[in-house]
Amino acid sequence: RQRSQMSSSSTPTIDQFQRCVVDFPSERSLLVCACAGSGKSTTLALRVKSLLDAGMPASRVLVLTFSTKSRADLLSKIERAVPPPAELPAVNTYHARALACLRQAGCTSTVMEPRVARKEMKAVLLDLGLLNESPGDGRQQSRSAVRAALAVVAKAKAGSGGALSAEERDILRAYNCALAAKGLIDFDDMVPMATEAIDAGACAMPNGNYLHVLLDEAQDTSGSQLAFLQRLAPRSSTVVTCVGDADQSIYGFRGSQPDMLTRLTAAFGCMPLILPTNYRCASSILNLAKSLIEGSPLREHLPLLSAPRAAAGEVMVIQKVDRQAEIEAICREVLATQERSEGGREATHSIALLCRLRVDCLALRRALKEYGVACVQAEKGEDGGGGVGGDGGGSTAATVSLAWLRLVVEPKDDLSFLACVAAPSRAGFGGGEASPGIRYLRSLAASKSNGQRSVCLLVAAIHAARKGWPPAGPSRLSRPQQEALSSFLQDYEALRVAALAADAPPIDVLLEAHARRIGLEAMLEKERVSRASQRAAFTVASSTSHRAAGAHAGSDESSDDGESAASSTRRAVSLQLSRFLRTAEQVGSAASAPGRGGGAGRVVPALERLKKFIDDMNLALYDPMTAPGQGQGQAAPSGHAPPVVVTTIHQAKGMEWDLVFACHLEEGSLPLLPRLEPHSMEYVQHFEEERRLAYVACTRARRKLVVTFCEGPSTIKDKPPSKRSRFLPRQLPGLR
Fold this sequence. Notes:
By secondary structure, the protein is of the alpha/beta class. Helix content is 47%, strand content 10%. It has 25 helices and 15 strands. It has helices at residues 16-22, 40-53, 68-81, 94-104, 114-127, 137-157, 166-181, 187-199, 223-232, 260-268, 283-293, 323-342, 358-370, 396-409, 414-421, 436-448, 457-466, 479-500, 507-518, 520-536, 546-551, 561-592, 606-622, 649-652, 681-698; strands at residues 30-34, 61-65, 90-93, 110-111, 184-185, 212-215, 239-244, 271-275, 277-278, 305-306, 314-320, 351-355, 644-648, 657-662, 701-710. The strands form 4 sheets. The protein has a 6-stranded parallel sheet with strand order 3-2-6-7-1-8, with helices on both faces. Helix 3 links the parallel strand 2 (61-65) and strand 3. The radius of gyration is 27 Å and the shape is globular.
């Protein structure tokens, strides 16, 4: 079937709707309503080519998107559409563009990792008396309270949170004060702060105002991002091309609003065009998705068309009486599909299991493991953001390595000092502020400070080493603590000299050498072994997997479980470190390559290079709009078992697979309804976003879609019986 797909050897074939977008007059603003699978990224890349061919300077064109992953995808298509040696326009995420404006305005604040944000919010809630952390269930309630508070803050900063209660205003105020006191900003600060910087005249637009701004995934724009966009692209001097799909507006928790395309049209005077043809989904899958989304009373009528000569495809239903039976049926179907693909009887090259909730993903991964089905290795932490290499929010390798670089760039950064001196663990310095070594340095720093000048921890440590470890009030360092601090200072000086040298190596090479010097991999392995032993204490392991039991019945297993666990730990440690270094290599290469941009050839001082690298790594690793989780996975070659990805629907947006399981489509799961007043506007908006989530799940499938749910009496006392989702049409094949 016809697909709008880039080719390195020829211009892609595009349909009449896409041609209208590409050839639309460059002096008029445009809104493109593009359905799922319509080839919008390819069309946007060709629109860029059309603008450049018409003589518009690349330096006056800006392409904005919402995540580092979508940026990489869009940039690769633009590079293929615009042949060298033509100059390419800037392709940025909102956060990258905003952070560049802040740095130009002189902001030196450190971009905060998600784990630090959770720690700061927890401290705020404790100070306000809104959190009572206790063992057992209290700890889980504490985590939930922190997540809920951060969600409120994110929506408030996005300009889409509505009126805040007095308690929420207190949380927001205290949280902002805590960050300001420590010189920190989070991702939600970047866009509104950049808007304020432009309004104050602290940040001038490069080359004056842009002549043309192209916006991808426009439906995900928040209120604060719209305000920022209006500064970047004043209607009087800049033309915009917005591409989006209101049916895929699913990030309400990050401030996006379902009427954003209408607001963009009004703000920039856009002319509407449509891309109605889905080139991704087989016709039976698209018919189900159409019946689902067209049930919305709030949706504007937009056509959804199958591609010419689209395959029929298959929609299958798994309906069971309880959740455990449903999960087992899903696992059996996945296993059977893999076996058919391995035998060459079926051409399925990729499989995804999509759930509404992360907890359901974890349950499915555990069940698949028991069946001997390996899932694609997760590339980010559980609560992470995203990026090229993963690590979002949770990788110790990323946290430690970037802390060392931040300390080179800003020696007064006490937070980075605390992270570095404890990694690897050093005698007397492993407990943060409460450790005896840090208490000694704090006392020494206080004795050397005066009203005009405060002494940071690093300077205090250097002074102590030079003066022979003098006492600081009642505090003294023991001999092991002195040796530990001396070792740290030697490591720091070696990194500082190497990083700031005129002939400094690439930053990823520098970080790899430093990781070896400080024994980072050994530290990560020790940390992993500790966590694995803690989990093992509460885990009852199954004797064999379902696949192993069938394939090796009667065989003698003699492998040592402890040895296997240790080997697995070493592989995981090596994988984490190698992923981080691979991301560092990609980010460093992109920053230093001659490239085809307007700044090519400029010699960048070592310190400036480090600062930009740290910012770029933060954007690559922790961008909240980048789908966290496992990634799309590589398609399996013919005759091999296809990889299996288990992720949430939010994380799956922008991806596609041959076979998709839309799991647990039942009331209370999808839709997942909050405790709101029924028929209130807030309730209706949330309900319709749940409908759009179900639509996004269905339109990730290319060849086959499996819809699963349980329906029947509950085995839990006082829990109502399970019911299929009201989003599912009655005419589904196999629906009872």
